[in-house]
Write a structure and sequence with these properties.
By secondary structure, the chain is α/β, with parallel strands linked by helices. The chain is built from 14 helices and 15 strands. The relative contact order is 0.09.
């Protein structure tokens, strides 16, 4: 509920709120620095007293309930984040997108839809955004018209203003769960089924190198957080990110975040520099939040030089395109070597590509699990182990299933998992009435 919905969308109450807001700003100027030291409760009391005085003075026709609503809206405006406050507190909200003050869109359950805007003008948007940025020490004006920042609760804020944004301030807020989803939570939500979970658990605990591929808002970060539950508790994990978003549920995590250049263009610390430094911090595994540049070369080298079990995410629409993108990024980074040697390094570094996507209905699903098996005729060889399919029941209900292609993993790291599958197949053939499956605990 934002400030507009708080006031029932009534133009008369909104007008009273705006007039009272101007009156309060004048009173705050008189108070000066003293106001900045007040608690939220003190501000709410102040707003209540001043609004009562304003209503009597201006003879505004409002009842007690309407006064309380206006006090609540103004308190949020002066002490909180105004129209954004309820949206930021709503656990169902995933993304908040502002395209100018009068266009607000919110994503819930993977579905993006319009929301009533409680902003009165572009300056109102900028005032709230600057209030968010103030504790972060970030600047936003015509000299610095674009800001990317991490919020205290772990969310991500991106703002573009005039002269880069033509139609008013463009604000994008990506929220993240305070309690990361566990693999069991993702299974309950239908992201994958138990056989897929079993393979993922075996791959992570057996130190396979994994690349999670997918589009924007497809659930890559959530899946990476979930897979961390399968990392043995005795291992040291170093995460490297452009903007810290990961919240690995693991007792020994070192979180590193890149630093943007200052106003004079100096002081930048790139992901690549952090990744190189992380290898000197005695990591058992390195987790890269998102591979998007030159750091891909250092990631591949880390995976090839004793840091098995490392993981990362990347933007790509299929496992094959994922490999192409890794090649392209390495080429842009100035990889010193032939195309064939680069592909051999990729093939030896990566074990699995997990493709995840967001379906048209907003649901996020693991679309495929593909294993990198080596090189053949100058091409990176791959085999798909599981594939997602949707089908419709007679009553019109859409269902998901993950089809095993009957291929066992090739990597030596999953020898125990492969043997277990073979034994279960034998048992199933000998006793068809019994389910040869079952959950195998690969945690150490």
């Amino acid at each position: 509920m934002n400030n507009t919905s708080l006031l029932g969308g009534r133009p008369d109450l909104i007008q009273v709120r705006e007039q009272a807001h101007e009156h309060l700003l004048a009173r705050i100027e008189e108070l000066g620095a003293e106001f900045g030291r007040w608690t939220r409760q003190a501000i709410q009391d102040f707003v209540g007293i001043e609004l009562a005085s304003f209503v009597r003075l201006k003879r505004v026709p409002v009842n007690e309930q309407e006064v309380r609503e206006i006090v609540q809206a103004l308190t949020r405006e002066l002490a909180g984040l105004g129209p954004l406050e309820d949206l930021l507190e709503d656990p169902a909200v995933e993304d908040i997108l502002i395209n100018g003050y009068d266009k607000l869109f919110v994503s819930r359950g993977g579905i993006l839809g319009p929301e009533p805007s409680g902003f009165t003008d572009d300056q109102h948007v900028l005032r709230i955004v600057r209030r968010i940025l103030a504790p972060l020490g970030r600047r936003l004006d015509e000299s610095v018209p674009m800001v990317d920042a991490r919020l205290p609760d772990g969310g991500r804020l991106n703002v573009v203003i005039h002269p880069l944004a033509v139609d008013g301030p463009m604000v994008s807020i990506r929220k993240f769960r305070k309690d990361p989803l566990k693999p069991q939570d993702l299974m309950r939500l239908g992201a994958f089924d138990e056989p897929v979970d079993r393979l993922l658990q075996a791959a992570v605990s057996s130190r396979c190198n994994i690349l999670i591929s997918g589009g924007t808002s497809s659930g890559k970060t959530s899946l990476l957080n979930a897979l961390a539950f399968y990392i043995p508790k005795t291992e040291r994990v170093v995460t490297v990110e452009d903007t810290a978003e990961l919240a690995l549920n693991h007792p020994h995590v070192v979180r590193l975040e890149a630093r943007q250049a200052g106003y004079d263009g100096s002081g930048e610390i790139s992901i690549r520099e952090l990744l190189r430094n992380s290898l000197r911090m005695r990591p058992d595994r390195v987790v890269v939040g998102e591979v998007r540049g030159a750091e891909v070369i250092d990631m591949l080298q880390a995976m090839n030089t004793g840091h098995e079990g490392s993981m990362a995410t990347i933007h790509a629409n299929s496992p094959r395109e994922c490999v192409y993108r890794v090649e392209m990024l390495a080429g842009f980074a100035g990889f010193q070597g032939s195309e064939d040697s680069l592909r051999r390094q990729i093939a030896s570094a990566l074990d699995f590509i997990i493709q995840i996507g967001r379906l048209p209905n907003g649901k996020r699903r693991v679309l495929s699990i593909t294993e990198i098996t080596g090189m053949g005729d100058g091409v990176i060889a791959m085999q798909e182990l599981y594939r997602h399919e949707s089908y419709v029941l007679d009553d019109g209900t859409e269902q998901d299933r993950w089809v095993s292609l009957g291929i066992h993993p090739h990597t030596r790291k999953l020898m125990q998992y492969r043997d277990q599958l073979a034994n279960e197949q034998v048992q199933a053939q000998e006793n068809p009435s019994k389910d040869g499956g079952g959950f195998w605990d690969w945690r150490r």
